[in-house]
Write a structure and sequence with these properties.
The chain has helices spanning about 5-10, 15-40, 45-60, 65, 90-115, 120-150, 160-170, 185-200, 210-215, 230-240, 250-260, 285-295, 310-315, 325-330, 335-345; strands at about 150-155, 175-180, 205-210, 220-225, 245-250, 265-270, 300, 320-325. By secondary structure, the protein is of the alpha/beta class. The chain folds into 2 domains: about 5-145; about 150-345, Aldolase class I (TIM Barrel, Alpha-Beta Barrel). Strands 1-2-3-4-5-6-7-8 form an 8-stranded parallel beta barrel, surrounded by 6 helices. Strand 6 (about 265-270), helix 12 (about 285-295) and strand 7 (about 300) form a beta-alpha-beta unit. GO terms for molecular function: magnesium ion binding; thiamine-phosphate diphosphorylase activity. Its cofactor is Mg(2+).
Length: about 350
Amino acid sequence: MDEQSNQRKEQPFAIERILDANLDRAREGLRIVEEWCRFGLNDTQLAEKCKQMRQEIASWHSSELRLARDTLEDVGTGLSHPQEETRSSVEQILQANLCRTQEAMRVLEEYGKLYKSGMGEAFKQMRYQVYIMESTLLTSRRRQQLKDTRLYLVTSPCEQLFSIVEAALKGGLTLVQYRDKNTDDIVRLANAQKLRQLCRDYGALFIMNDRVDLALAVDADGVHLGQQDLPIAVARQILGPQRIIGRSTTNPQEMEQAIAQGADYIGVGPVYETPTKAGKAAAGLEYVRHAVKHAPIPWFAIGGINLFNVKDVIDAGAERVAVVRAIMQAEDPTRVTQVFLSQLMKK
């Protein structure tokens, strides 16, 4: 009798029960991810990858392992955690089930070494595949949400920062940038963490202005860079491929450079003069018309846009706009957000 058989004999059915439970857990987690890839993202490749892995897992799920199942005597069936009871976004569902799958595969990798030759290595390789899928899926989700976004709020410092942002999120806002040039880093970090959580609660993307380090620290969805900030290539090296990088542009040359350098989106403006960009001449609607013809990536018209002039910007061809004062100084940010979105959705 070989060493593996001896070990199994000493602990009858324990290894088989562990493997059975985690084979089920891995397949269940993958199936939940697969359904979103199929119906939420319409991504054939990702859905097919999930299906292939589920089938490979099933090939290891022998009748011997299934017969070892003893649900009535399983002390873990009644264990739960409050975080498992609620989900506030699709992202949380995907993240929870990807982690569930990865953890199950790690268990299968280790205990599989005691059960059958090649099982440990097989699940090690599959676990790496799930890590890659997680990165791809998160990247895909962020970029699809960016593409679908019509209204972008760039914050300005104020005492009611959080209540204003939350009011706009209640109105349907799906993209927020935290912009604060002068506050101390310790305060900026705390504010960014709270805003990031607000955005997560409402299923919105959260972008950090300028600061790549703070974007990483608070797990932001990305960073927005001005012309004098880090080069896009350096920011990408630090942030990795999953996060969004935006760049401000004020003329066609800056637009071409940002696109060539790999920006995920660009700001186009300032369309009108604005105190946010003091001393900069307005680029005007002509630059908006240029972006319509020459920008292959998502872009947001920005600079002095409000409810009184947004129709002119839309008529010039803009599908997406970014605003600051129009929402940050509004008496009813929820209502203003809804009116902006209704105008933009008409296009």
